[in-house]
Design a protein that fits this description.
The chain has 281 residues and is α/β, with parallel strands linked by helices. Helices cover 16% and strands 32% of the residues. It is built from 5 helices and 16 strands. The strands form 4 sheets. It has an 8-stranded mixed sheet, with helices on one face. Strands 6-1-16-7 form a 4-stranded mixed sheet, with helices on one face.
């Protein structure tokens, strides 16, 4: 997690942040600013002159909608921006370059610390992704799926060796869509837009749940899967596309294999702090 904090006031002696670096030299510990602005993606002030990934970034200080859109598209182009992943490291370097491009107008420092993050382990075939394997039919092969955020300390993962079952599409996961017997021990497939109704799949005995993306998904639908209790309810996301459409139509009749070995891993995260010096006049 890279968090950027900016302030236009002088720091006060309130809270020690630990060893920090500013523009390449080691500084004494800084302290909590009197007024801070937390920026998860950074204000247009910090847009750089360099390009990364898909498209080109706008120049430094370019506040235009087009520049913001280009940079947002680049940020979203990474498969993952979780700490410990390559996408996170690229975005961190990108942010630092933007801050440094402001020159003497900004003094910045960083605070690094260890955190625990979920990590999908490599399977027998060397894949580092969670995989849905279909034995035959037009969609035969291995398809990447994405584990949802853990339920407290409980990872969305499969047991060693994975699990097998039939795919049972239950649509919006309403009670009338859940078969009373044929779902037990199988892999349920529901729409992510079903919101909190997803729990019905596990009440019906499903061993795992695959959630399908669509244009109808809202932030509230996704929030329904942020759980504070460590319950065992393995859930995985499959983006909208040909395979998702085939699952909606019940075109995958063969038994499938779901493999998502995972564990917790310690990685490094960072807070980036920027002191924007006030201008006179």
């Amino acid at each position: 997690m890279v968090r950027v904090m900016a302030t236009t006031t002088r720091p006060r002696l309130l809270r020690r942040l630990g060893p920090a670096r500013a523009r390449g030299r080691l500084l004494r510990p800084w302290y909590r600013p009197a007024m801070t602005l937390v920026m998860m993606l950074v204000l247009p002030l910090l847009w750089p002159a360099t390009a990364r990934g898909n498209g080109e970034a706008g120049p430094v200080g370019d506040p235009t909608i087009a520049a913001i859109e280009r940079d947002a598209n680049w940020l979203a182009s990474h498969e993952s921006r979780l700490p410990g992943r390559p996408g996170h490291a690229r975005v961190e370097r990108w942010l630092i370059e933007r801050i440094e491009a402001l020159g003497d107008a900004v003094t910045w420092w960083e605070h690094r610390f260890p955190i625990m993050m979920p990590d999908v382990q490599r399977d027998q075939e060397g894949s580092g992704r969670a995989m849905l394997s279909i034995a035959d039919g037009p969609h035969a092969g291995r398809h990447a799926i994405h584990p949802l955020w853990p339920a407290s300390v409980r990872l969305n993962a499969t047991p060693p060796g994975g699990l097998d079952g039939r795919l049972v599409y239950i649509g919006d996961a309403s009670p009338q869509r859940i078969p009373p017997r044929s779902l037990r021990g199988q892999v349920a497939v529901a729409e992510l837009s079903s919101g909190r109704a997803w729990t019905g799949a596990f009440s019906g005995g499903a061993s795992a749940l695959i959630l399908l993306g669509s244009d109808e998904v809202t932030w509230l639908d996704a929030q329904a899967h942020l759980l504070h209790l460590p319950i065992h309810a393995p859930r995985f996301y499959l983006p909208d596309g040909p395979l998702a459409d085939a699952l909606r139509q019940g075109e995958v009749a063969a038994e499938v294999h779901l493999d998502a070995p995972a564990k917790w891993r310690q990685v490094e995260a960072a807070n980036l702090y920027a002191l924007v010096h006030a201008r006179r006049g």
